[in-house]
Structures are given as structure tokens and as C-alpha cells.
Write a structure and sequence with these properties.
The structure is a homodimer. The first copy, chain A, has six helices and seven strands; from the N terminus they run βαβαββαββαβαα. The first copy, chain A, has helices at about 20-30, 50-65, 95-105, 145-150, 180-185, 185-195, and strands spanning about 10-15, 35, 75-85, 90, 110-120, 125-140, 170-175. In chain A, strands 1, 2, 3, 4, 5, 6 and 7 form a seven-stranded mixed beta sheet that branches. The longest helix of chain A is centred in the N-terminal third of the chain and has 19 residues, at about 50-65. The two termini of chain A are about 15 Å apart. Chains A and B meet through α4, β7 and α6 of A and α4, β7 and α6 of B.
Chain lengths: ~200, ~200
């Protein structure tokens, strides 16, 4: 039996994203949550921090507007993650040719991974937003490294064409910042924006 | 069909460690490998970098000496990972009471995760060694956070009493360096010590 006072129960959480990576990370926090993919059309051009915050807000708002997350005490979490190299946003490669281009660009260099987070509820419709940025350095890759990585298929649906929590970890030699942010959900930022989750 | 010349095949690898985390990381590299736990008695006191290199070498040597890795073309990999806080080595907590002490020490502070790596073979018995260090900052944890983490049981058998790739990622707010090193096997260092793995 714990000999310290109990905190109030945390709110129920809706993750406004169909990403299995985000679901996996949120699952690590030991929270009850539900997944409702928003299906919004994402913004793909603009200043990186503004784009990811706008997309995160669009996703959370779409879930609120759909009424699917109705009910008092619900916290809706929207998130958008992109890779930025030399101030250019790199999203998800549409095919292996584009994935090869991305990996060749990232080889031997440092890039930024930027996430926007938007949290709505449980008490009001006010949107709380924030941005998290992590830098990632790739080791120099030759054509064999890239061939081998593309053959895993792991590039599909991943911003920048790699997954740091999978085979892609062999491409990375240094990270500075929140690792969960690179996978797709900045946990420390989520706790800062929504301290009620730490009940 | 690739339109570039093939490299020679990489050597077969023996991982001299029973750690499921190391096995998982090595599996990400797409290499064929075998696991032979060395069963050596580890050194637990001394200057951190010396201790982890000595333990890694002991493990690799024990596998070589057992004859289990006999055969030309075999590369034996030994590794030891420890957590260092204020120049003190923290190993695996022996029970939940000790794990609670460790997590309370790590709370809100930055610590170092240090791995020693030892590679032997395939052509000679010369040992190639190296050290990798990553810094990890924990967010401030209260007694509820620690209770909840201990209840997952994830602290068992983990240096410092946490696993960054699991629920422990919710305890960490910043990493600087190789993330694979924190999980237990520094991949970039392994490639630097054994470039023949990149065939």
C-alpha cells in the first residue's frame, strides 16, 4: 500500500492519429486512451514549426468537430512530425525512389525532427500547443547501406524515409533531444502541455 | 539488379551476451549472428570506462576460450553497459527497493550511460576495444511516477533500473549521443571497430 496521498484520476485521452508509432509511445505511459484518426488533409509547405503546429491543431480539431470524442473529461491529442533539412520540410516518401533520395540527402549529415503538439480539453475548447525539436545525425551511408535499408520496406509512411526505433537505428550515430519525438510523439512536451496526465 | 559492385560477405558474428536488448539491436543490422552468453563474473568497481572495457573483453575472451565460437571467419562481440552518476557506477538493481533508490537519484538530473565494446576476430585474436558514452536527462519524478514505473517490473535486469526503449522512455526528457548505446549496444562504435560488418 502506498503511504502517500492519491492524485485525482487522469482524464481519458483520445489520440487524433492513426500512426502505430504514436499509439505505441502513448501506450508506454500507462494511460487509457482511444485512437481516432482524423483524416485531415495536411499542410505540407511553410515555415516548419508553423506547419507542424497547424497540422496538429487541425487533427485535434477534426476529432472534436466529429463529435467522436464527446464527453466531459476527454483530452484530445493531435501531433504532426516532420523532418527538416536545411529549412526544407521532408515528409513521407511516396515511393522507393523518393526514399532513396531522402536517405542520400540525410547521409553523413545532421537534420532536425520537429513535432507540433495540440491538446484540447478536458475542461475547455482552448487549444494548448507546443513544438519539440530533436537533432539527428546520420552516419555516412554508401549505396549498399541504402539498398539494404530500402529492402526492409521500413521507409514506407515514415517522415524522412526512416524509423529510428527499427532498422533505421543503424543509420543514426547521434541524437540530441527527445528520442520519443523522433519516433513521432514528444512525451516530455505532452506532459508539460497536459500536466493532468501525470495523475 | 544493383548496378554497383558487390562487397565481400560479412563475417559470421557471435554475440557474447545473453541480453535480449543487445540481441534485438544486433538483429536490426540485418546480420546473421549467434548468441553465446559468457557467464563471466563482472567487475563492478573502478573507473567507469576501464570497468566496461574490461568486462566486454572478459565476455568476448570467455567465448573464444570456450571454443564455442571456433571456426574461421567468426567475429566475437562482447559488450558491457553501465549507468554512471557523479562518477559512480550504477549496475542492475538487485530488488525493487534498490531500483527505487536509483530512480530517485536519476530524477531531474543528467547521467551518463557508458558501454565498453570488445571485438575479437575473424582473422586474429587481437582484441579491438572502444568506449561509447551517451548522456541522458530524466525529467523530475515524484513518488507516484516512480511507483508506477516500478509496478511495470521493467527495472529488472536493467542498468540504472530503467529501459529507455520501453515504459522508461516516459522518464527521459533528453538524450545526447547514440541511443542504441543506452539500450545496450553502441551500433556506430561497433561499425567503427569492425568495418567488415558493413559488407
Amino acid at each position: 500500500m502506498p503511504d502517500h496521498p492519491q492524485k485525482p484520476a487522469p482524464p481519458s485521452v483520445v489520440l487524433a492519429s492513426g500512426s502505430p508509432q504514436r499509439r505505441e509511445i502513448l501506450g508506454r505511459l500507462g494511460l487509457e486512451f482511444e485512437v481516432i484518426a482524423s483524416g485531415v488533409e495536411e499542410i505540407v509547405h511553410g515555415e516548419p514549426a508553423s506547419v507542424v503546429v497547424a497540422n496538429a491543431t487541425l487533427k485535434a480539431n477534426a476529432v472534436i468537430d466529429s463529435g467522436a470524442a464527446a464527453g466531459a473529461g476527454t483530452l484530445v491529442v493531435g501531433c504532426d512530425t516532420d523532418v527538416v533539412i536545411e529549412d526544407h520540410l521532408i515528409g513521407k516518401p511516396e515511393d522507393a525512389v523518393r526514399a532513396r533520395e531522402y536517405l542520400a540527402q540525410l547521409s553523413g549529415r545532421t537534420h532536425r525532427v520537429i513535432s507540433g503538439l495540440a491538446v484540447i480539453g478536458p475542461e475547455s475548447d482552448r487549444v494548448r500547443t507546443g513544438v519539440e525539436e530533436t537533432t539527428v545525425r546520420f552516419r555516412p551511408l554508401d549505396v549498399h547501406d541504402i539498398d539494404r535499408y530500402l529492402a526492409t520496406g521500413e521507409w514506407k509512411g515514415r517522415a524522412g524515409g526512416y524509423a529510428i526505433q527499427g532498422r533505421g537505428s543503424a543509420l543514426v550515430d547521434r541524437v540530441e533531444g527527445d528520442v520519443a519525438n523522433v519516433i513521432g510523439l514528444p512525451i516530455a512536451l505532452l506532459y508539460r502541455l497536459a500536466p493532468e496526465l501525470e495523475a
